[in-house]
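Our consortium's second objective concerns turning raw sequence data into structural hypotheses that experimental partners can test. To show how far this objective has progressed, the report includes one record in full. It was chosen at random from the queue rather than selected for favorable results. The single chain below, 413 residues long, was entered without modification.
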Amino acid sequence: MTTPRMQYEPENTQVSRSRGRKASSFWALARAGGIAPAIGMLQAVLVLSLAMTGCESSMEGRIADAGPARDAAAAPRDGAASPDAFTPASDASMSDAFAEDAAVLDCPCFDGPGTYCEADVAAHAAEEGCVALRASATGHRLLACDDSGWTASATCGSGCETGETGASAECSLPICDCFVRSAWCGASAARHGLTLDPPCRVPLVPAHDTDILGCDGTRWIVQTACSEGCFEAPTGVADACISSRPTPAAPGWPACAHHGLLHSGLHPEASDRLRCAGVTSSQITQTIGYATASAGYHAPDGTAGGLPYTAAVDLSVRGLTTTQIRALLARLAENGFAPWYRQPGHDGWPASEAPHIHAVFAGVVMKAELRGQIRDFLAGRNGLASHTHYSFWSPTAATREIIRLLFMRHYTP
């Protein structure tokens, strides 16, 4: 037996359909017999509707008067919630729901399109309350981001290195098997690792580039911490700490007048040398920067005259031709800077990153990351995690010597 459909329709649906049939009847009557009979029918419908409304109100009143008896009969047994009960959500629960929705939003490219280390992305995502490929703080993937979202571009078996900007990360080179037979200066060991096939990195460098490294079985260790630096002996002879750092020869660069700081965050000597290289304040795009995404390359290196400074500086190349950029690199090197033109898609610089010049002043105390870049420059490399050959421009032997002698004020090249 088929159950009549109206038995399961909600009350408001039945009323709506009833009113719809009455409206249709009204217009049919108007067309067939004229407007007067139709109006009479409409009046009857209105009276009936008012009567139904009154019945509903009366019924609600009687139900309300039943009060406790009705509640007792409707109460669920054993404390179970009534299946028909509806409890409006509190403001707090609604806020929690909205917070959960916001937490699953996809993260934007935090520092623009490019590549990011997974651990950095996880930290950003936790701070911003978003997600990006379920990034983990202990993950080892290299993640790429563009307008279409996040993708995993590689798994970094030997770790990931955040570059000079937040979106220029690279997989680290593999770690070298420990090859020290006696004692080796950290910086020298790192240079040797880059000459091997395939190139590899010494895990304790650049943090211990001026200390004596050795091997404990297959494990890299610091044999001796050198307070004044490390002396690199000829091949086959053990390196050793130096007791006092000798005064390096004058770099042989042209004289340069002293002026006030060209830009905040510069060492006074670096500021003067930028002026002598023809750099204006408007060309400087970054000195000190505290972004964790750039791994501290632009974090302060020390103080001079009571003010913080960094040895790193970024310069705009807007409006410069390729020839003019090469000429500027040469002038920077002649004045003590190790410079690179970061050309998108070339020499290890991501195609998604902005073009600019990154330069490090060699004559001041600096952080380990920048010391590694100076040594890369002296070896003709790109100063990035890949440590590949830099092809855009090459300094003369004389300008390379200026950088080496300045660096020797505080460090072993």
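The partners drew two points from this record. Residues 1-33, 35-39, 50-89, 97-103 have pLDDT under 50 and may be disordered. The first strand starts at residue 114 and ends at 117. Both points have been shared with the crystallography group to help prioritize constructs.
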